Amino acid sequence: MEHEIFSVFLGIVFIVLAYLVNVKKMVGILRGYNQERIRDKQKFIDLVSPFYLVSGAILILVPFIFSPEWSMVAIHLVIMANLILLIYVNVKMVDK
Q: How many other β-carbons are positioned within 10 Å of the β-carbon of residue 80?
């Protein structure tokens, strides 16, 4: 039961992050990204914000659609996808 609650909570946090990054343009709240070196901030926002929105929706919906074991699987997959996105942005979207 704790995994389902954590999954829904994390999904809400991701959706709030997507809102703050896309609408309020608060890219400074995202840690791990070197905002000073990012070439095109709007392209960065257009990449990161939908990722967090979709990830949040997945984390909220998985406990209600699938069995409880899938909540932890979804959390792990979203964390791995977030790590891949972090590496991609820090390699491809920053000035050298």
A: 10
Confidence class of residue 77 from pLDDT cuts 50, 70 and 90?
Answer: very high
Among all chains, which residue has been given the structure tokens 């990204």? 33
Q: What are phi and psi of 34, to 5 degrees?
A: -90, 90
Instruction: Output the pTM of the full model.
Output: 0.91
Widest distance between CA atoms in the chain? 46
Two structure tokens written together for 48: 């990161």
Can you tell me the distance from the alpha carbon of 3 to that of 95, in angstroms, rounded to the nearest whole number? Answer: 39
DSSP string, 44-92: HHHHHHHHHHHHHHHHHHHHHHS-THHHHHHHHHHHHHHHHHHHHHHHH
